[in-house]
Amino acid sequence: MTESTALSLAGVFPPIPTPFTLEGEVAFDQLHSNLERWNAQPLSGYVVGGSNGEFVSLTHEERIKVVQEARQAIPKERLLIAGSGTHSTRQTITLTEQMAQAGADAAIVVTPSYYRGRMTPAAFENHYSQLAENSPLPIILYNVPANTAVDLPLESISKLAQKPQVVGIKESGGSVTKIGAMVHRTPDYFQVLAGSAGFMLGALSVGAVGVVAALANIAAESLVALHERFQQGDIGAARDLQLSLIEINTTVTVRFGVAGLKAAMDFLGYYGGPVRSPLLPLEEEEKEVLREILVRAALL
Amino acid sequence: MTESTALSLAGVFPPIPTPFTLEGEVAFDQLHSNLERWNAQPLSGYVVGGSNGEFVSLTHEERIKVVQEARQAIPKERLLIAGSGTHSTRQTITLTEQMAQAGADAAIVVTPSYYRGRMTPAAFENHYSQLAENSPLPIILYNVPANTAVDLPLESISKLAQKPQVVGIKESGGSVTKIGAMVHRTPDYFQVLAGSAGFMLGALSVGAVGVVAALANIAAESLVALHERFQQGDIGAARDLQLSLIEINTTVTVRFGVAGLKAAMDFLGYYGGPVRSPLLPLEEEEKEVLREILVRAALL
Amino acid sequence: MTESTALSLAGVFPPIPTPFTLEGEVAFDQLHSNLERWNAQPLSGYVVGGSNGEFVSLTHEERIKVVQEARQAIPKERLLIAGSGTHSTRQTITLTEQMAQAGADAAIVVTPSYYRGRMTPAAFENHYSQLAENSPLPIILYNVPANTAVDLPLESISKLAQKPQVVGIKESGGSVTKIGAMVHRTPDYFQVLAGSAGFMLGALSVGAVGVVAALANIAAESLVALHERFQQGDIGAARDLQLSLIEINTTVTVRFGVAGLKAAMDFLGYYGGPVRSPLLPLEEEEKEVLREILVRAALL
Amino acid sequence: MTESTALSLAGVFPPIPTPFTLEGEVAFDQLHSNLERWNAQPLSGYVVGGSNGEFVSLTHEERIKVVQEARQAIPKERLLIAGSGTHSTRQTITLTEQMAQAGADAAIVVTPSYYRGRMTPAAFENHYSQLAENSPLPIILYNVPANTAVDLPLESISKLAQKPQVVGIKESGGSVTKIGAMVHRTPDYFQVLAGSAGFMLGALSVGAVGVVAALANIAAESLVALHERFQQGDIGAARDLQLSLIEINTTVTVRFGVAGLKAAMDFLGYYGGPVRSPLLPLEEEEKEVLREILVRAALL
Fold it and tell me: What ipTM was estimated for this complex?
């Protein structure tokens, strides 16, 4: 896996939402037009079919098709990281293979979680090990306790990082103690991505190389600038950027979720469009709150 | 929906495991032979494709096929309750329709949970309302916080119970305060099932009509006897049965999970067989512990 | 400890609030007058200085003095169970001795919890064992995860119940599975009290002998009737009583807490009075909600 | 309060343990000798009677006496920050006044938490506002969810920071998102202290001014060096120090707690001595693990 070890995850990656028509079908043309606009910004690549992509509301076939279509619009030099996690090891392996055929450069694989009480370190390690041994794509672990209610333990991350196919992790749990520990206990080629703009600078400071942040869909320049200032050693400027982003980030990701992100995209000239149920659209007064926060953050 | 209101959920329902071959494929012949043996016991019906049926490790097609095959082996007078929940409202509606065609008498529908932070009462109510309006089958709500990390609120249950298609709930959360409150605040035709043998008597005492219990797969007689003693007003005998079942129930359901249930079935002459990953099989010493507990419970 | 094994915890025990004057001092005369009124009701005894007694807002000296004064007003044939738990084993032993001198019949001892991460089964067992060996009073364990965020494990309860001084437990966690298991795994002299009216019938059905319920301060007759119906084997009548009490119980204990209980007492002619900060009094509209619920429950 | 706004919390503060004799009494001479040794290190001051000081296992009188004695050994130019939090507003005010008389420069006040379900933002704000209005000492808020199971909300921190007596917060929750947000939303004179060495650099990167870390009791030089490297803009060196400290920090603070800290102090020539129950001393094999980690961290 010489290739996978050459994969750089440095920089800023938006986890793009999946656009739907008013009738609820995937809006592939809007996917293309959104990507064209993002392509003009200094992003390192895209996560397609992740949590913000409402992957749990897509059929198996839709998940693949969205990646195929996104690949058409994403230049070769930008990474397409495809979400291929499921609650089952077998299906995750199958879908990861299909994502390779669909043109993905890497797979990002959320922890299985339904049998929470039985998701021991051994169960996580077995799941990802089987996947690593059968995957044509480099694997990025994906830990997001706010959604899964399980937490991939440091020990398991440390073991799995020994496998050359496991090239990194998107850690959304928000503990920089854990992020620092995983940087410390994994080989150099294993790369850590902060899973939210909220703790981006904190994560960079302890060795994360980049960020997968919903906010990157609507504030790419600020996040890229933060990353650059940090790399240049200008911590003061990086901090100012970080602090200015926290309120809008909390609003979009924690408070309003995917529906908030899509509404923000609508405000900003992207196609956001509806969410699929069980997610609900924002209420009118919530949209107004969002609009004001976008204005305050100088995004609108 | 005169039919659905006529559906009685009284009694004991095992949530049957899905048997797999050593190669990991669904073992339909073993499904038949297990059902034949259960058919000889005084059960009210079966839950097929629920949490103990490892539905999250089955493909969409396998979920349907397992119900079709089970229907062949289940007599008409016994209820086949098919698990048809997914994280998406659209897919849940589709799968529920397919379960009707596959021969199910009712659908049991687990709460969507991936976007936990956004699963407001309104989101739950919208999900199940859409389903109820489009379902050819009576709907049984399914609340299992130990797996989903969300808790369907009393208010939502109370509202959804007003819909004639929503005929009941399997409540696995274990709070008899909540079970009593939902009995109190729902119409008479809305029926509450305890989701575990561990709190069966407690639930019956406040108005539950039956139980969906993993333990019913291996100890149907005891659970049916408990139910009968309770209905006859013999609380002392019911309590003795209840207390005698708690240890084996905790072992099979909480401590060892589906792998424990399957191992117990193997000990008792059913086909248990392997679990699908990410679940792991029991270690040898765990099997020994299980065997001793089965002996102590006079099941082996 | 022949005496302690003779101590019966059967029946209904209100955990009485500590009355304060408008200036925030303990109102001993109101304590007396409240007790006189409760003495006219068929209660088995009182918990003094428990969670509803705001023990954490009393000084060490006030805790003792409240018990001394309450003893004056409580007839000998009714149990005075004094809260004597602290975060420290030493202080708990000291306070338990002082409660004996103050006239308590038994001590109810909440789990220490500040060092939650280190409160292993061994730590709990050591704490209560030291206390049992040094206590002049029978000890009632007190598990209330809603306040302490720790859960006294079944294994520890089972071990501690072997000690003759440990005569019972007030279990407020609400799991009848756990209550059944502890009844099953402890000697006959070890008595289990439900910690809330919400799951009283469920707890009785699996072997609890009584209840310590905030609601007993304002609805003693209903709770005593529920207990009697259950003992007479009239489950139907017990259930009707149980279901009728859930809403008012949830309002007083979960939703509004001690301030709600005190406001309800004010409505019903007892002296409720103010709470001590950090608890806040009810808002006016909350009081109105409470009043309506009291009317609906036929208490007002 | 011109003085309080002049109070600088920059730098490293150990939360010193309270030494006990083998008989369990406070060992004041060992308190003195430990402080003399710490005085030789470049620390900004001390937290006395905090979580690591086992304040919940001290009597009210012992809490005051420990501060009085510590003051004797602490030079004027170093801050003595005394823990004065209790579950009650009245007692917290009283104790804070007594801490002023005992010589403290500031009070650190843990959130009350026993009535967790009622600790609304308004309840927290009322508690601290009353304290601020009555306190002779500058107040440092103290949020430690791992112990209290409540989380002081950002909104409350932001409001309380408007009061001149509230000069800062020790935030032990570990979320740099929250720390960044509180830096952003509070006046400049409000100073944030990281509550653990584990996320020290992450916290500094978003604007914290210092750290209160158990680890500072045994590794002051490393923490001070980390702080200095950060202030000099040498993020690479700061990161190397941070990563090297995570394992030992996790061991001492999370895994073994106060007993681990005291055992480490014994290894390193300080007086650690016994903990008070309900805390338990380390087992022999735990001590051995600790010793190895101290060696690996080059502390021993």
Answer: 0.96
CB contact under 8 A, D278 and C127: yes
Tell me the pLDDT tens digit for each residue of C208-259: 999 999 999 999 999 999 999 999 999 999 999 999 999 999 988 889 999 9
| Residue keyed to tokens 């998107």 | A170
Supply the residues of D annotated as catalytic.
170
Q: How far is CA D218 from CA D36, D225, D249, in A?
A: 14, 14, 10
Residues in chain D: 300
- Check if the beta carbon of residue A89 is closer than 8 Å to that of residue A131: yes
SS3 content of chain D, % helix, strand, coil (to 5): 50, 15, 35
- Residue D166 CA to residue D133 CA, distance in Å, equals 10
Whole-angstrom distance, CA of residue B169 vs CA of residue B193: 6
Rounded CA separation A143/A121 (Å): 13
- Contact across the interface for C126 and D276, Cβ inside 8 Å: no
Alpha-carbon gap, residue D253 to C147, rounded angstroms: 24
Distance, in angstroms, between D25 CA and closest chain C CA? 11
Check if the beta carbon of residue A290 is closer than 8 Å to that of residue A256. Answer: yes
Return d(Cα C161, Cα D169) in angstroms, integer.
43
Q: Which two tokens stand for residue B139?
A: 């709907």
Concerning whether A170 is annotated as a catalytic residue, the answer is yes
Q: Retrieve residue B76's tokens.
A: 């008409």
3-state secondary structure of B34: helix
Give CA–CA dist D80/D13, Å, rounded. 9
Chain C residues within 8 A (CB-CB) of chain D?
Answer: 24, 51, 56-60, 86-91, 112, 114-120, 122-124, 126-127, 130, 146-149, 254, 257-259, 276-280
CA distances for B181 relative to B199, C210, C233, angstroms: 16, 21, 22
Strands (E), chain D: 11-13, 15-16, 45-48, 79-83, 106-110, 139-143, 166-171, 191-194, 210-212
Maximum Cα–Cα distance for chain C, whole Å? 52
Structure tokens at B125: 């109510």
Does C155 score more than 90 pLDDT?
Answer: yes
